[in-house]
Amino acid sequence: MKRKALLLGVAMALAGPCAIAQAAQPANGSGVQAGAIDQEAIQALKTMGAYLLSLQRFQVSTELSGERVLADGQKLQHTAAARLDVSRPNKIKASISSARSEREILYDGKVVTIYAPSQKYYSSIAMVDTLGGLIQQLENRYGIELPLADLFAWGTSNAPTGTIDSAMNAGQDIVDGDVCEHYAFRQGKIDWQIWIAAGSRPLPRKLVITDRSDEARPQSVSTIRWTTSPRFSDSVFTFAAPKGARQIEAVPLTNQ
User: Fold this and answer.
1) What is the pLDDT averaged over residues 173-195?
2) pTM of this prediction?
């Protein structure tokens, strides 16, 4: 599950092109110049990031639909789901599932384990780091990308606000019954939209990503749900090998 398909992880828009164009106008009805950066939209990302950093224990889940484009231009849609149990600064459990695979990643602050329940294979790696460091090490050394990884970048110096080419406020919308502020951004060959809950809990609730490097414009849509007062205990972060599970070696990337 690629990060850009999960969260800048990370589908088809429900409204038609005319409705989308109308919704993309600012609340005051004025036009938006191509490439303009609305500082209100940038500030909304910073406010969201600060709130995310304030959450010490939480559970977040996402349902993702993404598109694969065939050689003749036909699009195929696929779905996946993920759930994270998080305890800052250094504990996480990620469960990822799709029709093709199922994976779990557990980190208790000392050891990270990657487990494939269907095959009953697992690898454990000694690692002492924060969640941000864990995410970077998994990706850079082993090519493993944690779902919703960008949630841990917002509010930090790694947040990609400095590389945004255009930003706009697209008005308000409803996601799962909650009123959200809808923002649209462009970064290089990627267009992305984010719906942030209005009010005192500015949580990201939905993400749409469009790949403009492909003329077919494939999209992914992620709906994000939150529990900010979870009931899990720290035992969920420690891996206990099920009966019959086999340990295999985690091999770093060859360019390391």
Assistant:
1) 97
2) 0.84
At a CB cut-off of 8 Å and minimum separation 6, what does 162 contact?
none
* Percent share of the chain, pLDDT over 70: 86
CA dist 45 and 70 (Å) reads 34
Tokens representing 94 are 């990620």
Residue found by looking up tokens 């050891």 in the block: 111
Full set of structural domains in the chain with CATH: 3-12+34-232 (2.50.20.10)
Instruction: Report the alpha-carbon distance of residue 20 to residue 65 in Å, rounded.
Output: 19
* Distance, CA of 14 to CA of 33 (rounded, Å): 25
pLDDT category of residue 254 using cuts at 50, 70 and 90: confident
* pLDDT, tens digit, 9 for 90 and up, residues 202-250: 999 999 999 999 999 999 999 999 999 999 999 999 999 999 999 999 9
Torsion over CA: 8, 9, 14, 17 (sign): positive
Residues in the chain: 256
Whether 185 contacts 209, CB under 8 Å: no
Asked if pLDDT for residue 102 goes beyond 80, the answer is yes
User: What residue type is assigned to position 48 of the chain?
Assistant: M
